[in-house]
Write a structure and sequence with these properties.
- The structure is a single chain.
- The chain is an alpha+beta fold.
- It folds into two domains: 34 residues; 91 residues.
- It has a four-stranded antiparallel β-sheet, covered by helices on one side.
- Strand 1 and strand 2 form a beta hairpin.
- The protein is elongated and about 85 Å long.
- The chain starts with a helix and ends in a 15-residue tail after the last strand.
């Protein structure tokens, strides 16, 4: 009888352990996948804001700004401090021919952060390992 109780206790403990692993492992994996989520969302929002500001600048000046510095100079109150890293990302803006490109690159490469890119088309693109460019896959509009 004691042997039966010991085996049943062992089986119950094993079932509880399996249940705990089944519940915690997916949660840990999700948390690791979403690490830096707020920073990524902020970088995407910043790039969308830059895109809108660059389009407004283009409508007024009939040209794109040469870089982020010119955009900051045109709207100093709006873009104050944008030439410094924000939310773990460094933002850049470059005039390229008849267009422009803006990027958000992680300050610390090799982290779980993504690289982001937008140009005059307004399509935001992302890359995990390398700086994003026009060949990178687009990100969903939210």
């Amino acid at each position: 009888m004691k042997r039966f109780r010991l085996i049943s206790l062992f089986i119950v403990a094993l079932i509880v352990a399996i249940f705990l692993v089944a519940v915690t492992v997916p949660t840990i994996m999700w948390v690791r996948a979403e690490r830096g989520g707020k920073e990524k969302a902020a970088a995407v929002t910043d790039l969308r804001f830059i895109f809108s500001a660059v389009e407004a600048f283009h409508a007024k000046e009939n040209r794109y700004p040469a870089g982020l510095e010119e955009l900051i100079h045109a709207s100093p109150l709006v873009f104050e401090g944008w030439d410094q890293p924000k939310n773990g990302y460094r933002l850049t803006l470059t005039r390229v021919g008849d267009g422009f490109l803006a990027t958000a690159e992680p300050v610390t490469p090799g982290t779980v952060h993504k690289y982001f890119f937008v140009d005059q088309t307004g399509v935001l693109k992302a890359s995990i390992e390398n700086p994003a460019d026009n060949k990178s896959p687009p990100i969903p509009n939210r």
